[in-house]
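Recall that a protein's primary structure is simply its ordered list of amino acids. Everything else, from secondary elements to tertiary packing, is in principle encoded there. The following example makes that idea concrete.
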Amino acid sequence: MLDKIKELVDKVQQYHADSKESLEQFRLKYLSKKGEIGQLFDEFRTVPAEMKKQLGAEINKLKQLAQQKYDDAVSALENSVSDDSKHDLTRPGEPFEIGTRHPISIVKNEIVDIFSRIGFTVAEGPEVEDDWHVFSAMNFAAEHPARDMQDTFFVEKKSMEPDPHDILLRTHTSSVQSRIMEKRQPPIRMIFPGRVFRNEAISARAHCIFHQVEGLYVAENVSFADLKQTLLYFAKEMFGNDTKIRLRPSYFPFTEPSAEMDVSCSICGGKGCNICKGTGWLEILGCGMVDPNVLKNCGIDSEKYTGFAFGMGVERIAMLKYQVRDLRLYFENDIRFLKQFKSAY
């Protein structure tokens, strides 16, 4: 009987449960009333009295070993089941890709970051504006063509004549400049990003909705040289140290003198293409010294303060930066186009 107990001890120790069915077979074979350990207790009744103490102890050890083996196997199987249950069976079979920012947002944020390094802060204003902040305060004459219905989307127009209370979709973010200058005195060093609207035909180079970033610096003794160095710094930070700029005389109602700034075209390398119209240069912004009338209209002493302003189209800069030849692509929401753009901004 002692040899049989030792044989059963070896079998119990070598057992490994790999399934619930196998474990149930182990329980029936060793731990049930009709199992092999149960049969040993039945035979124990016929054992001579002098051997009962030794054999009884061995049988009890065998039963405890089998019970412990069974309990450990139950825990192991339950833990493996709980690990499987941690997987969310409702999750889709295909993983979702993390999206990216729109290229217009990437470029706008980069522009804001570049100017913030030299002390410009950000301000925003309403897209639905009145005539005063969009045109009148910015020194637009009553007969200026920008006031014409062909160029401006009017929401509410009082009469055929210009009225400071006319409501319209802003045609430039200069309206935020006039609001800022009305509320605070110089020094003012701010940029104004936002969406603007103009009644224009949609083409590869123009759209009725686009985005601008305008800048304004008003303080004592601000000069055109300050403007030039600021814009040269911006161009090199945006397009690289090899970028060249040129300033051409121009006219804007709210600046005097005024200029348009071109950067060397990186799409064709200066050889000429449909984007730069074969010139090797691409116009990206207008700029100039703030007209004294604008300062007066906004309650700033034009005898004490001077300033410069500039405004750029974000789409135009994005076209140059990413070498996109058709502005309309930015508004079509084609995911094959949009997923190409990845940036820290």
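Residues 185 and 300 are 7 Å apart (CA to CA). The chain has a mean pLDDT of 86.
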